[in-house]
Amino acid sequence: MSNMEPHLLPPRVLLFPLPCQGNVNSMLNLAQLLSLAGLHVTFLNSDHNHDRLVRYTDIQARFTCYPGFQFKTITDGLPVEHPRNGESFMEMCYALNSVTRPLFRDMLVSGQFGLVNCIIADGIMGYTIDVADEVGIPIFHFRSISACCFWACFSIPQMIEAGEIPIKGNEAMDVLIRSVPGMETFLRSRDLPSFCRSSDVSNPSLQLIMTETRQSPRARALILNTFEDLEGPILSQIRTQCPTTYTIGPLHAHRKTRLAKHATNTLQRSSNSSSLWEVDRSCMTWLDQQPLQSVVYISFGSLAVLTRDQLIEFWYGVVNSKKNFLWVRRLDSTPGNKEGESEDIPVELVEGTKERGYMVGWAPQEEVLAHKAVGGFLTHSGWNSTLESIVAGVPMVCWPYFFDQQLNSRFVSEVWKLGLDMKDLCDRTIVEQMLNDLMVERRQEFVKSTAEMARLSRKSVSEGGSSYSNLDRLIKDIRLISMETPKC
Ligand code: UDP
After folding, report:
1. In the chain, N or C terminus with fewer CB closer than 10 Å?
2. pLDDT tens across 101-152, in order?
3. Which residues lie with the beta carbon below 6 Å from any ligand 1 atom?
4. Ligand 1: distance of its center to the CA of 109 in Å?
5. Distance between CA atoms of residues 437 and 15, nearest Å
6. C-alpha closest to that of 149 among 369, 376, 305, 381
7. Pocket test for ligand 1, best of 21, 360, 386, 412 (most atoms within 8 A of CB)
8. What is the CB-side half-sphere exposure of residue 394 using CA atoms within 13 A?
């Protein structure tokens, strides 16, 4: 292969995700889909994440069968000991902009990635367009958030102009927002991305997210991990600004369909884990012993940090609900919780957990949600978790932590009717009541709506489905683009 003329090689695509678990998961799925189609992929990981991926997964094995695939690494700009959690999320965005961005440019200019025909970068790093333009490489933006959140972020200037941001105090939290086209009848101030709660429009987080999101119309196209049947009306709005928007999700399910088509057993059997934490598979054995749809799966994702009070309220609510539960508690998800240290948990919670619960530090989430014993998901409404729940047909109780999660949970409850929104509340009686509604009182209603959305999600990634066809189109476009003069 290496002796071939550059123009005879398949196009090489450089994938550059935001260095967070959810973003890396979805971009690795995209990387595999592009590799399956015969494209060559360079995946640019942060040093920190790459070390963890290599330590906790067999990621190299997953990609060795694609001869054109390679990993490259770059700093995320943060010191080694930085916690890299939700509390310091914006620090990461600033570091990426100030430290990683110039380095990324230098690596491209000096040819450290070899020949690159096209870049697919996470659109939250909107500035990647400037770098790509400078070196003359076509760029696509990929977002691993929902279309609804992308659109709300895109509409921040209109909300500011309409005086809807800044939000006028606590009394205005339930007031309807009228200036996000397509969401006029159900979006409240409370449902806006968390940084919109700032009392000052010059707030750096608000400004950064707005500025970066508004860059995407300059990209060749926008790629979204969603599907038409889920977010069609909002996608029509987005296409007024980003006419070429490819919806190719849910990517984790799409990857499975395409792998099944390729039919080589080694490929299908290869692990799909891209976990940055060590997966504790013992929970699968525990799930095997639980009755059908009896278990509430609880996870707040990779970034959320709970206070001790929140943890205790959730814990009482869950134990008092008398439901079986599998709870993912990341070691770094409550401050001051060090390995081996006693947490001084009330005895009734310890007993209740022994009786009906199981806790792990990190779970194989896709598999857990697909397990027949799981009947509900208490989630922070991260976009990957939401899509994984939708595909598995599992109804949700949503407790959004930050960013897009505030919007996702509103859509889950009010638009798609796939669960309940517990936003801004953290009280044991409410947790208990909502779990009871989800698992018992309103179960039939949710079983029906989640089964239908699961069906539509699978249809979208099956041959002839919207996401399936869109991916084919995207790949065709990448091939066409790469016939333009090879760059770098
Ligand atoms: N995840 C996992 N095991 C866990 C918890 C989460 O594999 O115990 C995965 C989950 O399947 C999802 C990702 O981590 O793909 C979390 O991404 P999401 O967008 O839901 O939330 P974030 O972590 O970005 O807040």
Report:
1. N
2. 999 999 999 999 989 999 999 999 988 999 999 999 999 999 999 999 999 9
3. 20-22, 25, 275, 299, 301-303, 328, 362-363, 365-366, 382-385, 388
4. 34
5. 42
6. 381
7. 21
8. 33
